[in-house]
Write a sequence for this structure.
């Protein structure tokens, strides 16, 4: 139940002997944000199947003073499966992101996910050389634990939160195309987003985007199918906040929707 937000990135440099991939030319350049920054806030989301059956909840915090860390902008989230979904897929999550306060590029992304009978922890470090990651998997019943680690020599790369903040800061004219690289775990992805239109969405002025994803082979940079996500529609509020109002994603288990249920300022 990873939150599937829409996001964007910029021109990349790749320090290796492998030729630059064709898709690199699509990447959205890094520019000064055209839209004001998001005020410190907390957001609550309802996760459902087709908007009918409650499947989970997500709570997100941007710039919470209680999470203040010197020299960093911090965003966090917690999530859990609920109701019938928890019987089929028991899931809990906690995410922590530290970003550069000026550019909002990620520095550290840490996640803890309780999936069925396993606890999976990721720690990612982002730098001008790329992304390094470590995954620890612990079997809850036995305490048995094993580690994996790796690196992606490509930069810049987003985490979940930095991609959200980058996208909302762009101009987002109708017809605009955005592209970015995101890595929230052990695999990088290319995300392409198209700004479809302005429209009313559940009584609020909204910007609608269509989002598609591909896996990236971390060694060859070849694009690979991402079968878990076919296509997603994202609605951002068309106001000063530009927060996600809803995401509808055609994923491997069907039509999943993440809908704003609450919003408050700090």
């Amino acid at each position: 139940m990873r939150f599937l937000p829409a996001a964007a990135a910029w021109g990349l440099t790749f320090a290796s002997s492998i030729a630059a991939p064709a898709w690199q030319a699509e990447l959205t350049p890094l520019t000064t944000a055209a839209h004001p920054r998001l005020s410190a806030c907390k957001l609550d989301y309802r996760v459902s199947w087709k908007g009918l059956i409650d499947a989970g909840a997500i709570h997100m915090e941007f710039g919470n003073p209680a999470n203040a860390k010197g020299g960093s902008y911090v965003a966090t989230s917690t999530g859990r499966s609920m109701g019938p979904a928890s019987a089929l897929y028991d899931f809990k999550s906690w995410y922590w992101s530290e970003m550069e306060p000026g550019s909002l590029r990620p520095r550290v992304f840490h996640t803890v996910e309780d999936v069925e009978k396993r606890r999976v922890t990721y720690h990612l470090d982002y730098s001008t050389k790329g992304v390094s990651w470590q995954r620890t998997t612990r079997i809850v019943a036995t305490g048995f634990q094993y580690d994996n680690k790796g690196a992606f020599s490509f930069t810049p790369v987003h985490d979940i939160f930095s991609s959200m903040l980058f996208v909302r800061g762009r101009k987002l004219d109708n017809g605009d195309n955005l592209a970015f690289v995101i890595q929230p775990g052990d695999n990088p992805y290319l995300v392409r987003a198209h700004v479809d239109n302005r429209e009313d969405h559940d009584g609020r002025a909204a910007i609608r985007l269509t989002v598609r994803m591909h896996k990236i082979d971390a060694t060859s940079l070849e694009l690979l199918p991402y079968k878990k996500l076919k296509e997603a529609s994202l609605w951002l509020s068309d106001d000063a906040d530009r927060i996600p109002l809803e995401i509808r994603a055609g994923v491997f288990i069907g039509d999943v929707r993440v809908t704003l249920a609450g919003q408050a300022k700090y």
Observations:
- The chain is about 5% helix and 50% strand.
- The first helix runs from residue 83 to 88.
